[in-house]
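Hi Y.,

Following your request, here is the sequence exactly as I used it, all 291 residues.
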Amino acid sequence: MRLAVHGKEFNRQSASFIVQIFETLQQYDIDLLVSSKFAQYLTQPAFRKIKYKRFDLSNPLRNVEIFISIGGDGTLLESVTYIGKSEIPILGINTGRLGFLATISRDETERALGKLFEGSYTLDKRATLKLQTNKGIFNKLNFALNDFSVVKTDTSSMITIHTFIDGEFLNSYWADGIIVSTPTGSTGYSLSCGGPLIFPRSGNFVITPVSPHNLTVRPIVVSDHSEITFQVEGRSKKFLVSLDSRVAPVDANIKLKISKADFGVNLIQLEGQHYFKTLREKLNWGLDIRN
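Below is the corresponding structure, written out as tokens. Let me know if you'd prefer a different format.
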């Protein structure tokens, strides 16, 4: 089995846990690949006995069966950029905080890896969105698992985002920005701006304004078969466009179109895991100090 790993920079307290993950992986008959970005942090003596090859964005993954992300949700989103259209199943081991996507806790890791190599898991396929522009920003990484956003620069006044659904005018949003979220991303930036939670298999996008000037303007749920286009204007001629954690500055001449990508992301789901369970645990649903 060929298995790829990506992770984030870690502190001394987390080093022993990262070593433990690699030692567990070494017990299995695998060809191990580690991202060059993560490998630069594996400098402690304990990592020297780990045998692996490196990969990066310029060297696409081939014949990889499993991808493991070690970090938080941001690390998993970054991991998706390495996977792209290949749809390699991905398991998120959480060394961060909340973790809606990276759901395997430290205490569960050894058991989870055992189940992984037994093949005792299912795949939860999540939709992605793609961005098309006339400027070619993000190049081949023009897709997102969580969300797309266009927002004002830090010190500028609010912007106006003229929004169209399948060519039909929806609204001109006077706001700090706007978010188009997949169901997966509905627990992220969109949620913090008042957007709804969307079940992953709902087949929707959520359009959520960021700090709208008019308080009657609310988030709206649309079909993910829709094409959503934007025209942006404001006193400043510079704006910021993001796909997940990737950000690029743009000007008012840019044309932006969002649609559903023709590939998804396969999240590995172990027995006992479910989206509803994740919501209850991460959002503390049902907990009450009176109980």
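The radius of gyration is 20 Å.

Thanks again,
Q.
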